[in-house]
Amino acid sequence: MPLMDRDITNAIVTILKNVDNNLKNCKAKTDFFILVSGGAPGIGKTQFGEELFNNIQSDWILPVEWIIDGRKPYFEYIYLDFSNDINLKNENCELDSTVIIGLRIAFTFFIKRKYDIVFEAFRALAKLYIKIFNISMVFESIRKSLSLFNNQVLFIFLHIDDFQEIDIWDEKTVNLTNKLFKNMISDLACFIFDLPRLTYIQTFLSETAPQIVIMAKEASKVLFKFVICLLLSTASMIHIVDHYAKIFGTLVFDDDESKWKLCQPFLNLIEDTGGLPRAFQYLLNTCFELEIQKHYNIYNNVQNNKRLALELLYHCIETIPVTIKKCLDPNDPIKTIENLEPYHEAFRTNMLVEKDETKMLLLRDLYRGAYGKNSTLDIVVKLKHLSVCQANEQFPSSKLTNKANNQAID
After folding, report:
1. What is the value of pTM for the model shown?
2. CB–CB of 298/351 below 8 Å?
3. Over the stretch 79-122, which tens digit does the pLDDT of each residue have?
C-alpha cells in the first residue's frame, strides 16, 4: 500500500531538537529523546517509521554544521523486526548486549539485502569473530561500506519494531547484569548525546507495549518521547484507492474521474475501516484481488477450465483416489493427474513463497512425510515463484523453447 503522509510534526520537532542539542554539546539527560510509537495492532506503526525517515531525508533543512565541504549528510534507514527474522529465541544470554544488537544490525544491513542466508546461519558463521560485532564497530563498518568521505555525516534512522520481544527475553534470562533492553538503550544513546560525531543514530521504537519503556526510563541515559501514530484520513484513503483503481482499470468518466467514488456502499466500507491502515489494506486486497489473482492467476484458470476445476474440487472434497493416468476432463485427454502435477507443484510453491516472508524452508517442511537422514532433511531450500511451460525439445538439449509461443525458456 502506498505511503501516505500523516501529521508527523511533533516527531520531527523532537528529532531536530536532538540534533541541535548534540551540536551544542549539551549533557543533560532531558535534552535528548528516543522516539516511541505504541498502540493497538494495525494502526500502521511500522509504516509510520518509514514516513518519518522519508520526511527527514527529503524535507529537512539541514544544520550548516552538517554540510561539510559542500557535502550533505548521507541518510540510511535500518529496520530491525524482533518478532521475525532476527528474533532472540536461541540467543546466548552470555553475550554482551552491544554484540547481540550489533549482530542484528550487521545482518540486516550487510547480509539480508544481498544474500540468501538466514540469521541463525549468519550468527553461527560470525561466532569466531563475535567480538568485532559490537555496535560501534558495526556502525563504523557501515560507514566504510558506503564509501563516505572522512568528514561526511552519516544519519542512521534505526527503527526497532516489536521491541516487547526484547523484554520477554530479558524476563527469561538469568543474567541480571545483562538486561538487554536497558543496555541497548544506553549503547544507542551514546550516538545521540556524546560529543558531535560523524555518525548520528536516531532510534525509533514501535510496538504495542509502552509500559516496557515506562519501566526502563529511569535507568536510561536519555528520555523517551511518545509520538502518536495517527490514523489515515478519509482523503488519504480515497487517494490510495484511486492508486489501485487506475492500476486495475476501473471505470472512469470522460474527465478521467473514477466512477467508484459515487458508489456509496464502497465509501461506507472505507469509512468503516476507521482509518486503520491494516484493516484498509485487507479491504483493498479483497476488493481488488491483489494477492490471489496476481500471484496464481487462479480465476482465469478456473474460468478457462471449468470442468477440470469442478472435477478437482469434487475429488478433493470426496477424497476419491485417482490414478496418475486418469483424465479428469473428457474433452481434453492430456489433462491427467500426471500432467497436472507440475501445476500443483508450482501453485504449492508459490503459496509457500507468499506465506513465508523469509522464502526459506527446510527440506522436511517443504515435503512433509519425506524420510531420510537428518542432514538431508535439514537442508535449507530457497523458494521462488514458479511457472509451468512445455518445451519443444527433449533432454539433454540445453536450448529450450516454449511450445506455446516458440520463445526461448530462461
Report:
1. 0.63
2. no
3. 999 988 898 877 777 788 899 999 999 999 999 988 889 999 99
What are the structural domains of the chain? 9-226 (3.40.50), 234-290 (no CATH), 322-382 (no CATH)
> Distances from the Cα of 247 to the Cαs of 163, 243, 289, 290, 297, in angstroms?
36, 7, 12, 11, 16
Nearest partner of 270 among 283, 286, 285, judged by Cα: 283
Element (H, E) at 303: helix 298-304
- Nearest CA to 226 out of 383, 381, 36 is that of 36
Contact 222, 189 (CB under 8 A): yes
Contacts of 321 (CB under 8 A, 6+ apart): none
Comparing CA positions, the residue from 36, 85, 399 lying closest to residue 202 is 36
End-to-end CA distance of the chain: 31
Query: Which bin fits 360, alpha (ψ -120 to 50), beta or left (φ > 0)?
Result: beta
Closest CA relative to residue 361, chosen from 345, 372, 377: 377
CA neighbor of 75 nearest in space, from 152, 151, 188: 152
Q: How many CA atoms lie within 13 A of 113 on its CB side?
A: 10
Contact (Cβ atoms closer than 8 angstroms) between residue 57 and residue 138 = no
Q: At what angle do helices 9-23 and 45-59 cross, to 10 degrees?
A: 60
Q: What are phi and psi of 401, to 5 degrees?
A: -125, 145
The answer to whether the CB of 222 falls within 8 A of the CB of 250 is no
Q: Which residues of the chain have pLDDT under 50?
A: 290-296
Cβ(154)–Cβ(74) under 8 Å? yes
- Give me the chain's average pLDDT, please: 80
Contact 296, 352 (CB under 8 A): no
Grid look-up 516487547 returns: 164
